[in-house]
Amino acid sequence: MTNTYDLVVIGSGPAGFSSAIRALDYGLNVCIIEGKHLGGAGIMNGALTSKTMYELSMDYAIAARIDRGYRVSSLSVNFEKVKKTVIQAAKEKQYQMLSQIETFSPAQNKKGALTIEYGWASFVDADHIEVRGKEGTKLIKGTNFVIATGSRPRLYDGLQIDGERIITSDGILHLKEFPERMLIIGSGIIGCEFATIFSNFGQTEVHLLDRSNRVLPYEDDDVSSFVSRNLENNGVNIHHTATLRHIRKHPEHLEVVLDYHDGHSKVIEVDVALVAIGRVPNTEGLNLEKIGIELHKNGTIPIQDDCLLRDGKGTCHVYAAGDVTGHSQLYSVAEFQGRLAAEKIGDIPQYPLDYSHMSTLMFFKPEVAAVGANEKMLQQRQIPYKAAYYSNKLVNRAIAMRNTNGFVKILVSNDDEQRILGMRAAGPQASAFIVSVAHLINQGNSLHEVLKIFYPHPSIPEGIQECLRTLSGKSIYKPEAFPDLINIREWTPDKE
Ligand SMILES: Cc1cc2nc3c(=O)[nH]c(=O)nc-3n(C[C@H](O)[C@H](O)[C@H](O)COP(=O)(O)OP(=O)(O)OC[C@H]3O[C@@H](n4cnc5c(N)ncnc54)[C@H](O)[C@@H]3O)c2cc1C
Ligand SMILES: NC(=O)c1ccc[n+]([C@@H]2O[C@H](COP(=O)([O-])OP(=O)(O)OC[C@H]3O[C@@H](n4cnc5c(N)ncnc54)[C@H](O)[C@@H]3O)[C@@H](O)[C@H]2O)c1
What we know:
- By secondary structure, the chain is of the alpha/beta class.
- The chain is about 25% helix and about 25% strand.
- β10, α5 (about 220-235) and β11 form a beta-alpha-beta unit.
- α2 (about 45-65) runs antiparallel to α3 and α2 packs parallel to α4 (about 190-200).
- The N and C termini lie far apart (about 65 Å).
- The mean pLDDT is about 95.
- Nicotinamide-adenine-dinucleotide binds near residues 189, 209, 277 and 360.
């Protein structure tokens, strides 16, 4: 028997799940198909598990401090117990998802019902997909489809992932103990987050391979240097301008050969190597060619602003959302796109997708948050701007916390209006207040409007207020008195 649904969603990550739930809101009968972990990389081997491990590692690092007038008399950490806590967090979320799936099961609801099928989906034709599960193959008919199949770690050419000693982020929870020595290949967000986590626990000698001369290559130099410095202060050995020649596996260790840009090479010994060089879209095996969908060269699915795919004949009832679309690979983007696709299917009013005020959190020590444009982006687009930097060393709340390693950097348009274009913030609570600036960017706010607002004291966001005041020459503390802690720069295309 072929089951028929108003909407079939392939993938239960943030894009797929949000799409399915939004479609229930207006009474569609929906089927989600999931091949592996409920919740995708949003939960398992991804955002939630890595963030749980990060929080545990930060707690451990605080407990290990000896500079605050207190000292823990004995401190130890057990990797198996850390893993158990991490998996517990993932399961907690999966059970919430399952509770919702059960609440909206077809047995309980005639309209607005949700079914989950476990197995791998591929298109048979434009209206049918086949699902290969443990119990055999099922044919499912859909009026509409959302492809939300996410992404997986990119592999390193010539390096075999064995899942035990040479792993990707999918293999972290398969480790049996803290490695004594670990090489992380790739100094993007995942590489720097795991370098932070493993160095926080203090059980692992961490080596981070950075093929350029700066980690987080897409961020501005000051942000990259800040992150690099903090990683090094946390004990991470960063190998800048180094590429991996090869890894020789020995019974007890891995022998790693690194080649540096200046021509010299270095051989180091580690126990585990983690490959974190980006993620590739999961589009293989979907049989998209059968429904006339042509992929981008990098395998991502080309979508329009409304997440709809066009099949070359101009019409289609297939949408795509999340990492598979090649937009920023972030939980919030996946969720937003998934909801938008469902709203489009329901033909109900949608918020248009606007990536200009998108924010990202980076879980380092301290945390770093980003919203809107950075200097690199504005320079590429030839947009004149002013940048103001204000250090947390001047912010009373940070002083009280004895935690002043951080800053805010705000970019505004270099015109009379001084519209806020972007911010980078680092230090305690940066992840909590970044969204307030996303609102300011979204509303097209200028400095004059923002400065009417009272900022509560003592609070970390007072740094934002002072940074904005600095831009209009009205700050309480002046760049002349604290040139290392407060500064303003201007950039215009013709001055380059
Ligand atoms: C280690 C790590 C940490 C991260 N941390 C953060 C963070 O802190 N903040 C943040 O914003 N983002 C973070 N991300 C990124 C975030 O997890 C992803 O952007 C997000 O999960 C993408 O959602 P998605 O729904 O598009 O895909 P996914 O979450 O990848 O879900 C896709 C699902 O589809 C399933 N699937 C694939 N093919 C098929 C098929 N043919 N049939 C059936 N099912 C299929 C997969 O099994 C998977 O469950 C992190 C990612 C990783 C790897
Ligand atoms: N906190 C968060 O928001 C968060 C956390 C984790 C992951 N993510 C998402 O997951 C995505 C993937 O993360 P990622 O860190 O794997 O990718 P990334 O694109 O952030 O970084 C990849 C890094 O690997 C380097 N690299 C690429 N090829 C290489 C090679 N052959 N040798 C050495 N280095 C190489 C790149 O220069 C870059 O530094 C991110 O783009 C991000 O959107 C987000």
